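Hi team,

Below is the intake form for TRAP transporter large permease subunit from Blautia caccae. Please confirm the fields before the structure is written into the shared record.

FORM ID: S-0412
PROTEIN: TRAP transporter large permease subunit
ORGANISM: Blautia caccae
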Amino acid sequence: MIIGMLFGVLFVMLFLGVPIAICLGIAVCVAIVASGNLNLLPAVAQRMFTQADNFTLMAVPFFILAGNIMEKGGISKRLIDFIEILMRRIPGRLSCITVVASAFFGAISGSNPATVAAIGGITVPRMKQKGYPEDVAAAVAASGGTLGVVIPPSIPMVTYAVTASVSVGTMFMAGVIPGLLLAAVLIATNIVICKKYDAAENGKVTLKAFAHSFKEALLAIFMPVIILGGIYGGLFTPTESAAVACVYAFIISVFVYKELTLKDIYEIFRKSTVSSAVVLFVVSMSAPFAWFMTNQNIPTFIASSVLGLFTNKVALLLMINVILLFLGCFLETQSIILLVTPILLPIAASLGLSPVALGIIIIINTSIGMITPPMAVNLFVASGIANTSIGKISKRIIPYLCIEVATLLVMTFIPAIITWLPGIMGV
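The structure came back. Fields below:
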């Protein structure tokens, strides 16, 4: 009865369009009242405060701020210009550049929509000038944006690490190979799909042009190196690295590139504050929800029920991915992580799947959800940039969706792809 009340209220309110944080809070309160143990109600506020009072979560607003500074400060543009010179001989050059630049930007911003907005805002107009159809250009930008949360550092990785009680550094390291693998398959897909719009160039790049472009992009290239190198070199924690990223991006944008104005700075801080508040409110509200489920042994009950229905490991792993992909169609990344992690952890443990591997699988699934209608945040951002309809982009995104799902399944059934690098690095 309590399980039905908890999830019944939750999904009814989600269906009605109520924000996820409010849904979580009201569902818990209703379930507590239904249980008859009103003494548990004060614990809702206590758990919210305890969850928010977390040093690790401070990385979230800092990474959001760093991504917004990069977008406005000219760092993204210089990075793209340099990659364009390196990839001029590749068919479908501009589409491939979008993927590579998205991977670089994702290594700093940790956000899918931010990656689409920052990189797509520059490459989509260039692709349209080159002869790419608007919907194709938008699909390329949207698919490239899925790398934003997979390439470390990543905001959802921080959220998962806090929820699952695993090391943020380990999660970051585990995301490197999956992120590069997804980037590689997207580049290969773009070469096949987009070569008819953008043929390879045979002309040579002068040493002077290369040197100038490299000089302009050097400080941008060093940014993810400084962040990740500092974390694994023991110079600072993931949270401190996010603050370093903000300071670095600000200094470069204001004093070196000189593209940030006072008006831009105000808008950047306003936008970052709003985005951070939304994320942190959802995370803090998830704490009483997860606590109540644990208090009532709900995750254990669901896990045992699922294991009773599916005894085959392959079927279980497929079911986990199907559920996550389905949720990704309707909910955003943070919400899914907070909802499913307590439930899936015991199931993963029974399958011999490490919490770190499970975390990467969840994050990739939710990232794919960003290009899967109706939620499809990446598609909405890309459609605005390309000035085309969601319907047209949805058709063009299908090949990218299929190849990403196929790559996800490979990593699901061969989790060593995820855990190998953290294992050899000893993190």
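SUMMARY LINE: Residues 88 and 204 are 9 Å apart (CA to CA).

Thanks, M.
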